[in-house]
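Need residues for this backbone.
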């Protein structure tokens, strides 16, 4: 597994919170966020689309798992409707690339965690997130590219 260590600054985002098992809540959060994003013209060059995860699904009951569908925005962005603003904390992260269907991301996260432990890289109790590098509406599922970002201590 190819892993890179990256240091990033905090990112302001517009987001929609989901509560419940990630595979069930994230699609609904993305639908709501994308409706807002397209209506407001928020997709700009350099915008990043990401999902942030607050809880470890192996230790948090599904009904308590919190996730956010997010798009990066300017620091002066003012949210409307049911859209929230938050900041994805910066810091040091381990990053790997997953190629393939979103349905396989859970397995990819498991393999990533195993590889980080094997390499002796200690993780930190901050948000982990996925960054989506291509548009799922026009990309075959086996060609989807997703970066996995795990915070390091």
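Answer:
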């Amino acid at each position: 597994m190819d892993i890179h260590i990256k240091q990033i600054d905090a990112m302001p985002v517009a987001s929609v919170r989901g509560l419940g098992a990630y595979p069930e809540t994230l699609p609904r959060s993305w639908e709501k966020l994308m409706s807002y994003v397209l209506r407001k013209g928020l997709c700009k060059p350099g915008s990043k689309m990401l999902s942030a995860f607050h809880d470890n699904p192996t230790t948090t009951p599904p009904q308590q798992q919190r996730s956010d569908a997010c798009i990066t925005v300017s620091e002066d962005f003012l949210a409307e409707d049911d859209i929230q603003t938050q900041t994805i904390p910066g810091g040091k992260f381990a990053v790997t690339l997953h190629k393939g269907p979103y349905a396989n991301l859970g397995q990819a996260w498991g393999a990533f965690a195993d590889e980080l432990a094997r390499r002796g890289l200690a993780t930190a109790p901050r948000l982990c997130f996925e960054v989506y590098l291509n548009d799922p509406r026009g990309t075959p599922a086996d060609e989807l590219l997703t970066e996995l970002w795990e915070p390091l201590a």
